[in-house]
Design a protein that fits this description.
The complex is a heterodimer of chains A (about 210) and B (about 180). Chain A has about 210 residues and is an all-alpha fold. Helices cover about 75% and strands about 0% of the residues of chain A. Chain A has one domain (about 25-210). Chain A starts with a helix and ends with a helix. Chain B has helices at about 5-20, 20-45, 55-65, 80-100, 105-115, 125-130, 135-145, 150-160, 160-180. The chains are: A mainly alpha (about 210), B mainly alpha (about 180). The interface of A and B includes residues 5, 80, 83 and 149 of A.
Amino acid sequence: MKTNDLINLLVQDAPVRLNLDQALWHAAIAATLIAGIAFFAGIGFRPDIDTAIQTGRFLFKFVITIALAVSGCKLLFCIGRPGVPLRWTALTLLVPVTLAIGAAIFELIVMPPETWVARMIGHNSRLCLTIIPLLSLGPLACFLYAMRSSAPERPGLAGAIAGLAAAGVAATFYAANCDDDSPLFVLLWYPMAIGLVTSFGWLVGRRVLRW
Amino acid sequence: MKNLAREEEWASWMRSAMAGDPRAYHKLLSAMTPRLRMMARKRCELFGAPTSEAEDVVQEVLLAIHLKRGTWDPSRPLGPWLSAIVRNKLVDSLRRRGRQISVPLEDVIATLESDDRVDASDRMDIEIILRTLKDPQRTIVQSISIEGSSVRETAERLKMTEVAVRVSLHRALKALAAIYSGRAT
């Protein structure tokens, strides 16, 4: 085909009203709805939610997971746009990490050492490692679908970020069911579950986000 | 892309194009093509791919610019966006070609020697491309690209609505991009 003929074709193609930000917002809303429906249909709140909600440890889990969901989404909104620098936005990922580590250090200071191991191991780790990835699947699909109209320079990385954002959403819901509230538990098991989802996002992203 | 005035001009054409001005879009793509061709030829030499393939690379880059133009934020400069798209596509497409030509040296020499006889702007055989498209798309591509008709004329001739022709054209372009990048055969 002659290049000029191709240009004629391109020029005749109607202006596409593709709005990446809008697509990602829709994906974020759908992701929350899907994870929420799956959560309430599948596991729901922990039985002692009324008393748990009055404890700082329980509430702080949400501070961490919501920080992860928000910073992951923020990065996702940038990574599909070629030529937009990512470094400063990527630094916001340190917010949930710092919060989790800070809370864990605080826990180590206020709690007697003989309780540390029990608090860290908890009794729900297997649920944590299965439910967070399961709840992430719907949100991950939404984010990847929206990202298909984007143009990430590194598709694998973009998929991983989509995984991170999806895991943030899923972990926020799961935290309302999990009755291990110690920051030590959160710092040990949540990142494993989130890491699984992120790796999965990377694998899928490498294939479906190529352009 | 170092020339700020040119970049500003291209950005304004791109804004008009995205707002639906086909003439501005034509100006933009025609202005870009010679530069893309230069870059593609240089890269081809660098990667040891025959320069005759540069035109395919140019067309692949043009398709990427077209299909991904929605990822450019009109409030940002065009240069970094364009460079990122071009670099990504060049690397991608040459890596693929590089792998394809890592075959017997004689073949490469034969290809190089045949360079002069190949029309440089007509690498991807239009017949092959058309054969891979399904029907309303094939006729539409043929009508617009080769016969130079507009969407309206094509719609009238095919007894389709303009919207249907546009949708079909857009799908055809996506399919073309997939053919070029080897994701479909």
